[in-house]
Specification:
The longest helix is centred in the first third of the chain and has 21 residues. This protein has 427 residues and is mainly beta. The chain is built from 2 helices and 18 strands. The two termini are 18 Å apart.
């Protein structure tokens, strides 16, 4: 059993990480493509999975909180308690055919907890972002008799997710699970139109805030077939049904004089409304296969698709298409025995992924590619690890006057594994 000082040090480290994450969680992404739909949808998997191209739907381990497939919670040891918290740093170049812009950002990845209830039943809960928006766009046009027109678009905010899930082993090798998630947060979008060359035209500003507060369900299934020499073949399935989220929309439209909102006076309030409505989340389904060899090698593939053409927000349908992602990943653990070198106790991960995003712009569906790698560094005399992962990828295209994003996603997490449920024996 891990000594008390070691537990105390790890808990202090975990609390410190939580404090950092509480600040980082308020930072948004920076992508013009987040203007559409619900913004940039969170990947819903940990750094361990990200380092393998997102491959995780059939991947279970006793120290791995796999929120993508809740059926995997049943792999937790009966005496374990697991915590994992992570942060993301993203560095991106956005360019079209004439210009380029560089951005960087730090944000919360997740806070996850997992523990067993019995030999057949296990639970997990946590906090992570569901979607984010963050953009600032300017444009202009020329109209006869009016002259130059300036457009300014700005968006920030996002939806977060608090989840609780459980898994149960039905029979040998077969587990099912579910996650119940509470979504909350707001998306804030501002559109401003000004007329620099016309003294008779008032500028217009429209502010739109969408708030959501509701519950969604996700389901998972896992089947594992074990062979000799600790070899194992696993098959995982996940699904989520179409969901209607209770939402509120606030719209404030005003006309004002001048070129900058707030610099002069408000002329008129053109609209000040609030309404209740629904945001329809589309259904999805996914599956994966993994093969483990002697607790050293792991290789697997995943595929997931979601029907975003069924998405709507307050009855409005955005120009979204069905999305898909295919992933292949692997991990390698050189040595199990204690006393070997640090690098022989480090886990190495690698992966590739290809995705068709839900964005359909100017008759082009935007694709996304990524290559990733990562490491799990062991902590002394413990199964706890420090996880590090990097993904290099690109999204979009410069064709049809669109934007190509080239990015490097750098992620780090602390995974604390402790044995908290051991019954003490007294003589």
């Amino acid at each position: 059993m891990t000594s008390f000082p070691n537990i105390r040090i790890q808990l202090i480290t975990g609390i410190f990480l939580i404090n950092i994450l509480s600040v980082c969680a308020q930072t948004n992404i920076r992508s013009p493509y987040s203007r559409y739909g619900l913004g940039q949808i969170n990947s819903n998997y940990s750094i361990k999975a990200m380092s393998m191209g997102g491959m995780c739907l059939a991947n279970s381990n006793n120290d791995f909180i796999n929120i993508s497939n809740p059926a995997t919670y049943s792999a937790f040891d009966t005496t374990s308690f697991i915590f994992e918290g992570g942060i993301n740093g993203i560095f991106a170049q956005m360019r079209n055919q004439t210009t380029s812009v560089y951005t960087s950002n730090l944000s919360l990845n997740y806070l996850l907890f997992g523990f067993p209830v019995s030999k057949r039943f296990a639970c997990s809960f946590g906090l992570l972002p569901f979607s984010n928006i963050g953009y600032s766009i300017t444009d202009s046009a020329q109209i006869t008799d009016i002259g130059d027109i300036k457009y300014f678009f700005k968006g920030e905010g996002g939806f977060n997710k608090v989840y609780g899930g459980a898994s149960v082993k039905l029979i040998k090798g077969l587990s099912v699970g579910f996650n119940t998630s509470y979504l909350f947060g707001s998306l804030n979008k501002i559109r401003t139109i000004t007329f620099p060359e016309s003294v008779n035209m008032y500028s217009i500003r429209e502010a739109n805030e969408t708030k959501v507060s509701d519950v969604i369900l996700d389901y998972g299934l896992l089947y594992e077939k074990k062979f000799k020499n600790n070899n194992c073949l696993s098959v995982g399935l996940i699904t989520g049904l179409k969901s209607k989220l209770n939402a509120k929309e606030y719209i404030l439209t005003e006309s004002f004089s001048g070129l900058t909102y707030g610099s002069t006076y408000i002329k008129d309030t053109l609209e000040n409304s609030a309404q209740k409505g629904d945001i329809v989340l589309p259904p999805y389904i996914g599956g994966g296969i993994t093969f483990k060899k002697n607790n050293k090698w792991l290789i697997g593939v995943d595929y997931k698709t979601q029907k975003w053409n069924e998405f709507s927000s307050f009855g409005h349908v955005d120009s979204l298409s069905n999305s898909m992602q295919a992933s292949v990943g692997m991990s390698f653990f050189p040595s199990n025995p204690s006393g070997t070198s640090f690098w022989n106790k480090t886990t190495y991960r690698f992966g590739l992924r290809y995705a068709q995003t839900y964005l359909q712009l100017r008759n082009s569906q935007l694709n996304e590619y990524g290559i990733s790698f990562g490491f799990a560094f062991p902590m002394q005399r413990s199964k706890s690890t420090i996880n590090f992962g990097v993904e290099l990828g690109q999204r979009g295209t410069t064709e049809n006057n669109l934007i190509k994003e080239t990015f490097a996603l750098v992620s780090c997490s602390l995974s604390i594994y402790e044995r908290w449920f051991i019954k003490r024996k007294y003589e």
